[in-house]
Amino acid sequence: MMSARGTRETMPPALDAAATAAVTRPRTAPDRALLTSLAPLLEAWLPGRRWFAGKDRAITGLEPVSATELLPPGGSTPGLVHLLIRVRQPGPVTDCYQLLIGTHPALPPRLSDALIGTPEDGPLHGQAVYDALQDPRLCSVLLERLRLPGRLGPLAFSRAPGAAIDARLPARILQAEQSNSSVVYGDALILKVFRRVYAGVNPDLELPLALARAGNTNVPPPVAWFETAALTGEDGSDGGPATLGVLQPFLAGSTDGWQLALDSIAAGRDFALEARSLGRATAEVHTALAAALPVTVLRRVQMEHLTALMAERVESTAVAVPGLAPYRAALAAAYEELADLTRAGRSWPAQRIHGDLHLGQALRTSGGWSLIDFEGEPARPLAERRRPQPPARDVAGMLRSFDYASRTGGPDTGWTLDEQAAWAARQCAAYCAGYAEAAGADPRDDAALLRAYETDKAVYEVLYEARHRPDWLDVPMAAVRRLAAPAAAPPTPRD
Ligand SMILES: Nc1ncnc2c1ncn2[C@@H]1O[C@H](COP(=O)(O)OP(=O)(O)O)[C@@H](O)[C@H]1O
Ligand SMILES: O=P(O)(O)O[C@H]1O[C@H](CO)[C@@H](O[C@H]2O[C@H](CO)[C@@H](O)[C@H](O)[C@H]2O)[C@H](O)[C@H]1O
């Protein structure tokens, strides 16, 4: 576990006496009475959250993992309780979720959208219980905790050496529906609070910390973070501490690559210079990760495992999205081609990578591109996400994103399908050329690997769109049709 550093400091004037008392008064035991009174409200509230992964299954029970007071609940002033709960649902694993629960004797109307409910009995009887991350005042309490490294019950707060945190920065909640919840403090810092929590260090802390220590500047360096003491693993084992949240610099004035790409399509501008520079930034991050963290070589056994996972994804997605079924065999051919190469003795270098790279994960500032959100594919077990993988997976993710941008922005501009494909091909070529400049190797030279990863990502997207944005389903389905007919789909073009 990363050790808590630093010493206690005097409290800033912005926090009141109640907050001062609470942050130094830990309460560690899971509070069953508290959860019992909250359970019916949470069971109704959780399925409506974008970050709740179990929307397709009924909740059969909630179990407390820990309940930690940050401000005493139940009184005449707002309270704040940090909760970790396991959500029981049919299926082999029970997910653990992080909730920050605000309590208020009379919830102000500005917080009405955050209301979870009002318990009819138990310790919070009559109090409004709400999502504390919607309340700037309670978000400030969390920032104050991060300013003061140390322990609070099972929670451990750490700060990067030399990092200064001004706890008076006003909090603003990012409203966009995301996999997690993020709070911006005064346009200077952003705190990502992980909602679904896994035993072990989250790559969204691990990789940016490793990159910061290696001097890489393409990723915002963690300023502070918090963890919980040993959490049981997904398989019931003792999985060790789990990362709960990461505070990092907010890149004010940045625009994400997705928006920039759509703007450039709408304005009829080319994006190739940006794509090229994004390719270079990706390669620089990969090079730094390979130097900072363990690397390996994937031989036959590992590649067979990898291609088996890809094939499994096709099968399970075809069950959930029947429109994919006719392409199953043709898609699997891309994975077979890789497996054939390994059987012939070919091996591939693997290293830690981003794992879910797309244009929305790239922020353009005046100083260049920054990459964010190193969590990897959120639905996969943490151990799998932390395994070294071929960097081509990230490259393929970005290539898919250029295809998405052209098919989303192109029709509004009146482009034909050929014009959309030509735009995407130009950006893919520029991105790969930029990558090659910085990495010394061109990802297009490994066409079988790139095609397998593009295929795997397109299949992932089919399920993602079917679940979250059915109107967008045809974007990855069009890619599936193209990738399933490789003779008609030329390899990624060169400049
Ligand atoms: N360092 C940052 N600076 C500016 N904006 C950021 C930063 N980190 C994240 N964001 C914004 O917050 C959004 C959510 O962050 P992300 O890490 O992708 O969270 P999630 O895991 O919930 O998808 C991003 O789409 C981006 O717009
Ligand atoms: O929430 P995350 O950023 O972790 O990623 C998920 O949501 C993305 C959509 O917001 C989704 O990305 C897909 O759509 C993008 C356009 O909205 C496109 O640029 C990506 O290439 C495409 O994969 C992502 O797959 C999903 O994991």
TrEMBL record:
Gene3D superfamilies registered for this protein in UniProt: 3.90.1200.10
Top-level EC class as recorded in UniProt: transferase
Domain Maltokinase N-terminal cap, first and last residues per copy: 45-135
Source superkingdom: Bacteria
Entry EC no(s): 2.7.1.175
GO biological process per UniProt: glycogen biosynthetic process
GO molecular-function term, one example from the UniProt record: ATP binding
Keyword set, alphabetical order: ATP-binding, Carbohydrate metabolism, Glycogen biosynthesis, Glycogen metabolism, Kinase, Nucleotide-binding, Transferase
SUPFAM superfamilies: Protein kinase-like (PK-like) (SSF56112)
Pathway it works in: Glycan biosynthesis; glycogen biosynthesis
Catalytic reaction(s) noted: D-maltose + ATP = alpha-maltose 1-phosphate + ADP + H(+)
Keyword Transferase set for record: yes
Oligomer and partners: Monomer.
Family: Belongs to the aminoglycoside phosphotransferase family.
Protein name, entry field: Maltokinase
Species of the source: Streptomyces coryli
